[in-house]
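Entry for the shared binder. Reason: the reviewer on the internal report wants the predicted structure included alongside the sequence.
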Amino acid sequence: MNVRKGCRQLRVVVALSVALLVAASVGVRRVRRAVSRARAIPFSPLTAKGRVGAEYLRRHDVATGEPLSGEMDDMSEYAQPDFDPDAIHPAVRRFYERTAEYNLTYRVTWHRGFRLGASLASRLTSRVEQLNLPGPWGSATGTLTSRIVAIDADDDPRDGARAWIRTNESGAAVFVAIYASHVRDGTRYVNIAAPLPRSNLSTVLSIRKLERGDEPPGVELTTMTETGDEGLYFVTRLGSVALPIRQSFRVWPDEDGIRARHEMWLFGRQFLTVDYESRD
């Protein structure tokens, strides 16, 4: 009896050990894949020494001082067989090419299961003045003013690097993002870096049309097309790793302006939606 009991216990221990080894192996493989994915992508080298804030460019001396109009100079640079910039609704294309002329109003929704974490994180992001969205227990709305400035190529060699700085009503930075692009295998990707203390959070997105029935299409920037480099990455001087986060930006026309929606998922669960409205 004791022998049989001992054998059963041994089988349980062996089974648990095997399960833990398999889980550890899977975890290691995932980490290796995440590091491998990030290794070949041209990320921005820009980071922050501490607080980011609206004066990030001046304090880090990385701007040329030249004001720019848009998130991109010309959408035609992103033309490919399945994306025709000339077919995009003119109001949407104008927003991307003349972004600084628009003020943005926004509404933030933190989804169930992530609200406590968002509340804690908002205390840190408000101090750092980066990714500085309101937490779930305060006002979920606000207005953003935009400024876009060219970045010196010696500081960020990615194609067309420029900073899009968005500040709220009090002048605090909400987003400080360095926009650029890169090309791989004939596809041009949007390549965005958000400087953080001693690191940055980089997003690589594919551009595609947002179908609207018989109307001219809008635009979607997304990490979810799986054509190559898309993803969200944590970048440091020691290396970079892909994160289990996906996101999508959709922009479409609305009367005399545009509307936009930014959605994010963690391990497949949606945790954030930001709705924007903009008038030129």
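Summary line for the report: Helices lie at 2-39, 56-60, 90-97, 115-128.
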